[in-house]
Write a structure and sequence with these properties.
Elements: H1 3-21, E1 23-35, E2 38-49, H2 52-72
Antiparallel strand pairs: 1-2
Length: 73
């Protein structure tokens, strides 16, 4: 399998996942305080929205790469 075909499949999969889920969130630990035996930290939950255009664009670019790969062969 060629590198271009693998990149195309990865782009299409990422685009589909972006459209299906729409966003992802992660937790970041911040503001750690240590006073003697007491440890205090704050966990911040961040959500990142994935634009619909980015998902559609990734699928389109992946499809174009697959078509170019077929024409090459």
């Amino acid at each position: 399998m060629s590198t271009m075909k693998i990149a195309a499949i990865v782009l299409i999969a990422a685009g589909v996942l972006g459209l299906v889920y729409g966003s992802f969130s992660y937790t970041r630990e911040t503001h750690e305080l240590k006073v003697g035996p007491v440890d205090v930290s704050v966990k911040d939950k961040q959500t990142v929205a994935i634009p619909i255009g980015a998902g559609v664009g990734a699928i389109a670019v992946g499809a174009i790469l697959l078509m170019l790969e077929r024409k090459k062969s």
